[in-house]
From TrEMBL:
Gene Ontology terms for molecular function: transferase activity, transferring alkyl or aryl (other than methyl) groups
Coiled-coil intervals: none
InterPro entries: Prenyltransferase, UbiA_prenyltransferase
Name of the protein described by the UniProt record: 4-hydroxybenzoate polyprenyltransferase, mitochondrial
PANTHER family linked: 4-HYDROXYBENZOATE POLYPRENYLTRANSFERASE, MITOCHONDRIAL (PTHR11048:SF28), PRENYLTRANSFERASES (PTHR11048)
Superkingdom assignment: Eukaryota
Major localisation: membrane
Cofactor(s) recorded in Swiss-Prot or TrEMBL: Mg(2+)
């Protein structure tokens, strides 16, 4: 939960205050994403966790892991969409969110929770999620800025 405080702090640092209608869905999406990649990571060493008594989402979800990951991923994408709507995001942002959804769906569909090397590969592929979101936010904001400059241009100069 603490890991995702950046959603609240980053917005506040840039905007000067926290717009809860944007920050809370963004924070929620971050928590859901953390549950996805952390659960995948936890499946790598679940045998050791059993031996030493560590409780993990991998042990809790067992063979239902893919269903849980699918739910967390859907919740993440929903949170990103709500955050985007509440801050007037644009086409590039939503395209990136859609690409994130496809990436996560493929990741979950092909995941073999009983092969540590596959779990590591899927865990590491979450960097793609971060890159997609970063690019989507940046391009979405540039698109927003360009559109606002076009709208503000006086009619006489067109």
């Amino acid at each position: 939960l603490t890991f995702n405080w950046g959603a609240l702090l980053g917005w506040s640092a840039i905007q000067g205050s926290c717009n809860w209608s944007v920050c809370l869905p963004l924070y929620f999406a971050g928590v859901m994403w953390t549950l996805v990649y952390d659960t995948i990571y936890a499946h790598q060493d679940k045998r050791d966790d059993i031996v030493i008594g560590v409780k993990s989402t991998a042990l809790k979800f067992k063979e239902d892991t893919k269903q849980w990951l699918s739910g967390f991923s859907a919740a993440m994408v929903s949170g990103l969409c709500v955050a985007g709507m509440n801050c007037d995001q644009t086409f590039p942002y939503y395209s990136a969110v859609a690409a994130v959804g496809v990436h996560l769906a493929r990741q979950i569909y092909t995941l073999d929770i009983d092969k540590p090397e596959d779990c590591w590969k899927k865990f590491a592929s979450n960097r793609t999620v971060g890159v997609l979101l970063f690019v989507g936010i940046m391009l979405g904001n540039l698109w927003k800025r360009k559109n606002s400059e076009t709208v503000e241009e006086p009619l006489e100069s067109r």
